[in-house]
Amino acid sequence: MGEHTEFRPGDKAPNNGHYMEFGEIGVDTAILDPKHVKLRKGERFPNTSNQNRKWKMKDKGKSH
User: Fold this and answer.
1) What is the pTM of this model?
2) What's the CA gap between 5 and 17, in Å, rounded?
3) Which of 15, 16, 55, 59 would bridge with 7, disulfide CB 3.0–4.6 Å?
């Protein structure tokens, strides 16, 4: 089974990294001024700006 990619407040971060909020409708939905956090593996996610949002790891730039 794969690793979860969406996280709720209080969940533990699976890896070190930068995470950001995403919108209620989907990942591609633009929200104004989303929260960004830097977490270490095992740290808990903070509350989001509203209860319908979740956390997702910020995409890394792809190089080919």
Assistant:
1) 0.78
2) 12
3) 55
Residue 44, SS3 per DSSP: strand
Rounded to the nearest angstrom, the gap between the alpha carbon of residue 46 and the centroid of all alpha carbons in its chain is 10
**12, two tokens:** 């533990």
Tokens coding 11: 């969940």
Render pLDDT for 16-62 as a digit per residue (tens, 0 to 9).
999 999 876 655 556 778 899 999 999 999 999 988 899 999 876 55
Distance (Å, rounded) from C-alpha 50 to C-alpha 33? 12
The contacts of residue 7 (CB under 8 Å, 6+ apart) are 13, 19, 45, 54, 55, 56
